[in-house]
Amino acid sequence: MLNLPTLRQLQYLMALHETKNFGRAAVTCNVTQPTLSQAIVEMENLLGAKVLDRAKRKTVIFTSFGNQVIETTKRIMPELENMMETAKQMQEPLSGTIRLGIIPTIAPYLLPSLLPPLQKKFTKMNFQIIEDMSHVLIENLENNKIDIALMALPFDTKKFKSIKLFEESFLCASPTKTFKKNESLTTSDIDNHNLLLLQDGHCLRDHILSACKKADDAGEQPLKATSLHTLLHMVGQGYGITLLPEMVINQGIIPKNIDIHSFQKPVPSRQIGLVWQDKTYKKANIDAVNKALKAILTA
To answer: Taking the C-alpha atoms of 126, 82, 75 and 127 in order, what is their torsion angle to the nearest 10 degrees?
Structure first.
């Protein structure tokens, strides 16, 4: 019978591949750096080939063979995790970890009303929240780093299962007296005003441009915000106007020097939905959480 690398050795190697640093990989694996380094050396001795190019001591570089080992590990590790999680759920259904990805333009506004009822309903589940932009969440779904993504649609999610939960209107935020008090706007009313947007990569940027039927002139805009909080501050300082999702307005955090205007029909909007990987060992748990999220968000 062949002597094979241990799962622990492969886990250490994957952590090193993801972090590109021995110290961070050791912290990820909750071991000391010498322990992790020695385990990888032992694996190399067992295989009779180097997985790391140690010519440059300060840089983690994988050999060609090392990259092959990584690709093999990526294929087999999910199956092993599947086996362990399935066994655990047979003993204790609706338990374990659910990794919920949420985009930054949703997380601060919905999480406070989502987490408490989820934790109350699923007392044996551990919910991990990962906040990132839509394209990163989709990559994380594909790489099995998250289980569910709560995000704005439309977005390219054809590789996964998805459901639309609700549609959310955009409202116009402008410096005071830009428009008449309580005036209901059309999207053409904002054409002659500087439209402030989030930086490239945020799907909210794309959804606003689409809703307003505007081209993406990212290269011509010197002012771009990294968050909705920054965007509001820029509007308050008189740099321009912007469109905000309704959930932001409902939080009651709009400064007094900013006016909020609704739009006439057709009202610009975005859709909020859930996206998930259907073929997974956590399917029963994901289905249960999705059902609960739908009930909470559409109540």
So the answer is: -10
Nearest CA to 38 out of 71, 59, 16 is that of: 16
What is the percent of the chain with per-residue pLDDT over 90, rounded to a whole number?
66
C-beta separation of 26 from 36 below 8 A: yes
- What superfamily does domain 94-165+271-297 belong to in CATH? Periplasmic binding protein-like II (3.40.190.10)
Task: Please give the Cα distance from 68 to 232 (Å, whole number).
Answer: 48
User: Could you identify the residue written with the tokens 């385990």?
Assistant: 39
Q: Is the pTM of this model over 0.85?
A: no
Total Cβ atoms within 10 A of residue 71: 9
Give the architecture-level CATH label for domain 167-269. Answer: 3-Layer(aba) Sandwich (3.40)
pLDDT band at 217 (very low <50, low <70, confident <90, very high): low
* Helix, strand, or coil (residue 202): coil
- CA–chain centroid gap for 270, Å, is 17
Q: What three-state secondary structure class fits 82?
A: helix
Contacts of 227 (CB under 8 A, 6+ apart): 104, 198
d(CA 249, CA 129): 23
**CATH fold of the domain at 7-89:** Arc Repressor Mutant, subunit A (1.10.10)
Could you report the per-residue pLDDT of 141-166, keeping only the tens digit for each?
988 889 999 999 888 888 899 999 99
Amino acid at 247: M
pLDDT at 219 over 50: no
pLDDT at residue 89 greater than cutoff 70: no
Distance CA 250, CA 244 (A): 11
240: left (phi > 0), else alpha (psi -120 to 50), else beta?
A: left
* Element of type H or E holding 275: strand 269-276
